[in-house]
Each structure stands twice: as C-alpha cells, then as structure tokens.
Amino acid sequence: MKNLIFIFALFLSKTLSAQETEFKVEVSADTVLMGNYFEVKFTIENGKGKFVAPSFNGLKIVAGPNQSSSYSSMNGEVKQSSSYTYYMEADEEGVYIIPSAKLVFNNEELKTPEVKVVVVANPEGIKQNPNSFHNEFSFPPFRDSKKLDSTPTKKQKKTYKI
Length: 162
Prior knowledge:
Elements: H1 2-17, E1 22-27, E2 31-33, E3 37-45, E4 50-52, E5 59-74, E6 77-90, E7 94-98, E8 102-105, E9 108-111, E10 115-120
Parallel strand pairs: 2-10
Antiparallel strand pairs: 1-3, 3-6, 4-8, 5-6, 7-10, 8-9
C-alpha cells in the first residue's frame, strides 16, 4: 500500500511540475504605419489569477479587451490558457512602450516584459493588415476602408500597394 501511495505521489508531483504558469505578451507588429491599428495579446498558460492590464499611454484602444480561454486534456496532460486581446492605434508618430501587465494569484505577482512599438509616417494613407493572430474576418470589423476605383481611364495606369 505504501508503494502505491508513493507511486501516486510521484506521478502527481511530476504532473504538477510540468504545469508551470506562464504569462506572456505578443504584438502583431513592432512597426506600424500611422493610421493603422495593431493587436496586443496577453496570454496566461496553466494558471489563474486576476489580470491587471497596463496603462496604454498615448495609445487609443480601438477594441477590447476581448477575452478567450481554452482547456484541453490529452493523455493525462491538462493544459489551460486564457488570453486578453486589445486592438490599439496611435494618435501620432513615435516610439511607444507598452508597460508590463500583471497577473496576481496566491499572493504572488507575475509580469510580462515591456513591449516597444514604433509608429512611422504614412503619407500615402496605406491601410495595413495587422498580421492578426486570427483571420481577415477578425475584430474589429468596423474599421473604415478606402474604396478603390477599379476602372482606370484610357492611357492611365493605376498601381495599388497591398
């Protein structure tokens, strides 16, 4: 009986040690053209707690926070993930530092690293896909887009940058 308890305790400790909490941040682009938005995603893996968003000084929140979560159990290995996604836009050119977000649990605090985003001039008014973590139908759907005139007049060549 003692051996059975020992084996169970060993298995349980091995499973729990593999489930270390991870807290990370991702941005869809580190350089953005003025007038375009980008995505900031905070992900918590194998942990729970109170998420405290950073202050996005100088940046406008276009949409968010959007929250998603997933849970999987495969061959006895359990994984859990939660994420908070923001869509941000800058009002002017420059270098923006997104401060650390915090995750507070069991009187402990985890922090993400700071992230730098550079916003550069966009004299041609180019609209960028934010290289989203999702697809082209992702949020925010209400972005205004330029309507392109696809009927050039005679002897006029039109070039579009995508």
